[in-house]
Design a protein that fits this description.
The chain is of the alpha+beta class. It is built from 12 helices and 17 strands. Strands 1, 2, 3, 4, 5 and 6 form a 6-stranded antiparallel beta sheet that branches. α9 packs across α10.
């Protein structure tokens, strides 16, 4: 059968569940806040990458638009002195209008300057080996080309070349129109962005070449990025994406968002330091966790004190129960000693008298009969004289056990030692005939024990019994009268030769 857990166990379980629930709820709330913080920063970096891509696209678009006009003039007006002089003024005007431009140049098919936006043209410099020049000489595409960053040989600046091919009337290679964008222009824009102390932004060619970056380093411009986690994430996720990446530049883990420019083969990347993103979250979490730990400690301490009090109470109650049980056991023992014959284990004379009065009253109320058997061990004094009192005691004990096994089978029946070698059996709701039958069973059982008695004619211990019964409701006689009547029947049995049962009305021979 299922046993209900103790109150101490249930209280302990409740306190444990409450403490665990507080910790679990705080953990779930903190983890959710972390996810929300990262999500918000992911949106922020995505917006930042979008703004950078748009700025770079617009910047290059303006330079490319100027190149389209230059190529058209060269191919329409030619490269005569007047046309070149007019074009020089136009190039200078365009550079003055577009702050991102360092200069505008036009080269012939051999890489020599034809015209540029500067006040004075460089002398004895040839750009035929520049990457953008080689590209246009080997490719016939008329679209713009974004070259790898270069260092200006005239002013030492780092520049991003944007160029277009110039064709001769017959379609052959005629030269290159070049716009150089100052890398510092992007740097100023990137410096205006709020990316924290450890954030980073970059503009990268789709071929994997770094154009510029913040934090800025001269060594980072033109660096090959193809083996970095950022470039792999871009090539894997497509033109737009977000990824958590360990930077190959400085070893800082950042949340990166990247976006390809709409019109040119570059992508912008914006990254915020993960540690900086989560710094406020960590601080808030530590405060929350500290509060929860304090609250859990208080709940746990109060619960522990409560459980300790309950354990002490339970211990006290258990001790009281043990004391009560011991007292009850002692009382029962004392009551048993007071009501039990110490030799035979049967009820003593006191218990006999109490039970007789009680059953007499019950028989009167119920209008039932009450029977009594008085038993005497035949020639017991002679038995003691022959075998000694110790043997006599053992004989009485054996006879007592035999009577108890036959007579005390119903709740109201009582077998008692009446006195000396005399025994008695009270039988509620029993008539004389039934009582006589039981008395005969007892007499036969004791005879069958064959307890040696040299003083008896048969050589064994025997019993004599007197039986009577009355109905208290039909008589005014007291309980003592039942004893006297059964005693007269016992006397009759002895006078008739012993080892027999007699009733108060007529004897029964054996």
């Amino acid at each position: 059968m299922f046993r209900r857990p103790s109150i101490t166990f249930r209280t302990t379980a409740f306190v444990a569940v409450v403490c665990l629930a507080l910790v679990a709820l705080d953990f779930l709330n903190s983890w959710h806040s972390r996810a929300v913080q990262l999500k918000q920063m992911s949106v922020a970096t995505s917006n930042l990458a979008r703004a950078m891509a748009q700025q770079a696209d617009d910047t290059i678009k303006q330079a490319d638009t100027a190149l389209i006009g230059i190529v058209e003039r060269i191919q329409h007006d030619g490269t005569g002195p007047a046309a070149l002089d007019r074009l020089h003024r136009l190039l200078a005007m365009r550079v003055a209008e577009l702050p991102q431009l360092d200069a505008l140049h036009v080269y012939d098919k051999d890489g020599n300057w034809i015209v540029n936006s500067r006040q004075e043209s460089p002398q004895n410099l040839n750009n035929a080996l520049r990457e953008y020049f080689v590209f246009h000489r080997e490719h016939t595409q008329r679209g713009p080309h974004i070259g790898v960053p270069v260092k200006s040989r005239t002013n030492g600046k780092l520049l991003i070349p944007v160029s277009r091919r110039i064709d001769n009337p017959d379609g052959s290679f005629g030269g290159v129109a070049l716009a150089t964008i100052d890398v510092e222009f992007f740097g100023k824009f990137y410096d205006s962005l709020d990316i924290g102390e450890a954030g980073a932004v970059a503009l990268i060619l789709e071929s994997g070449t770094m154009m510029t970056r913040r934090p800025f380093s001269v060594d980072s411009v033109g660096r090959n990025m193809r083996d970095t986690g950022l470039f792999r994430a871009y090539t894997t996720q497509g033109p737009v994406g977000t990824a958590e990446i360990l930077s190959a530049q400085d070893g800082i883990t950042r949340l990166n968002s990247f976006r390809r420019l709409a019109n040119y083969p570059l992508f912008a990347a914006a990254a915020l330091s993960k540690d900086e993103i989560l710094a406020a979250w960590w601080q808030e979490t530590l405060w929350h966790t500290g509060g929860v730990i304090l609250l859990t400690s208080i709940v746990g301490f109060v619960g522990w004190r409560l459980i300790r009090q309950m354990e002490l109470q339970n211990k006290t109650e258990a001790e009281l129960r043990r004391a009560r049980d011991a007292l009850e056991t002692l009382n029962k023992t004392l009551n048993t000693l007071a009501m039990e014959d110490g030799l035979t284990g049967l009820a003593n004379r006191r218990q006999f008298d109490v039970t007789l009065d009680s059953e007499f009253s019950r028989a009167m109320r119920d209008a039932s009969t009450l029977a009594l058997i008085l038993i005497d061990v035949d020639c017991f004094k002679q038995y003691n004289d022959i075998y000694g009192h110790a043997a006599g005691d053992e004989c009485l004990q054996t006879i007592g056990r035999t009577i108890a096994s036959l007579a005390a089978r119903r709740p109201g029946d009582l077998a008692a030692r009446y006195g000396g070698e005399e025994l008695a059996v009270i039988l509620p709701k029993t008539d004389v005939a039934a009582a006589a039958v039981l008395a005969e069973k007892i007499r036969s059982a004791v005879r069958d024990l064959k307890i040696v008695h040299a003083g008896m004619p048969e050589g064994f211990v025997t019993l004599s019994a007197g039986v009577d019964a009355l109905s208290p409701a039909k008589t005014t006689s007291p309980p003592k009268e039942l004893i006297l009547s059964a005693d007269r029947a016992l006397y009759a049995a002895k006078m008739a030769g012993r080892n027999r049962v007699c009733t108060a009305m007529h004897p029964t021979q054996t």
